[in-house]
Amino acid sequence: MRSLFGGYGHEPAEVLGRTFEEVAGYNDIVLVKDIKFHSHCEHHMVPVIGRAHVAYLPAGRVLGLSKIARLVDMFGRRLQTQEAMTAQVADALMDSLHPQGVAVILEAEHLCMSMRGIRSHGSSTFTATYRGVFVDDPAQKDAILRLAGCTN
Ligand SMILES: [Zn+2]
User: Fold this and answer.
1) What percent of the chain has pLDDT over 70?
2) Residue 46 C-alpha to ligand 1 middle, in angstroms?
3) Is 43 a catalytic residue?
4) Which one-letter DSSP state was computed for residue 33?
5) Chain centroid to CA 50: how far?
6) Predicted TM-score of the model (pTM)
7) Could you tell me the distance, in angstroms and rounded to a whole number, from the CA of residue 49 to the centre of ligand 1?
8) How far away, in angstroms, is 124 Cα from ligand 1 center?
9) What's the distance, CA 94 to chain centroid?
10) Measured in Å, how far apart are the chain's first and last C-alpha atoms?
11) How far is the CA of 74 from the centre of ligand 1 (A)?
12) pLDDT, tens digit (0-9, with 9 covering 90-100), for 8-24
């Protein structure tokens, strides 16, 4: 239990660190796809298993890529709603990295849906949230959805 809910013992600033790398002329989208995560829904304390796609448009600084996966992992190790977790990842990146924009997409299977009530096996829930330039510029948002494989 301590490990499964270990995300409460950590803060985004700790996971992301305070040092960022300067971009050497790179000023385009950075997308980390298919970050596998496990969480537990706050209503039933039943596992949620999913993948996150996290993108940002740098404003002069970039993060070590593994830090994004660690951030997703940290928020997963808390009781969550998928909607809240999507927003938490986006806000943490905006607050510490100050990029031009952030996009976070989560696709997850909620075992509470398979195990209880309606027993909808294999259905997945999709949430997406956008900050900054991804809100202001629909072309940037479309680019992210295409790169993440969320459109046809
Ligand atoms: Zn649930």
Assistant:
1) 95
2) 6
3) yes
4) E
5) 10
6) 0.92
7) 12
8) 13
9) 12
10) 40
11) 19
12) 989 998 888 876 777 77
